[in-house]
Amino acid sequence: MKKLVDEELEKLICDFPGSKYKATVLVMHWARHLKRLEENQNLTMTDIIEKAMKDIICGKVKPEEVLKTASQENNALEAAALRRKAEKNKK
Question: Of 49, 53, 55, 69, which cross-links 61 as Cys (Cβ 3.0–4.6 Å)?
Answer without folding.
Answer: 55
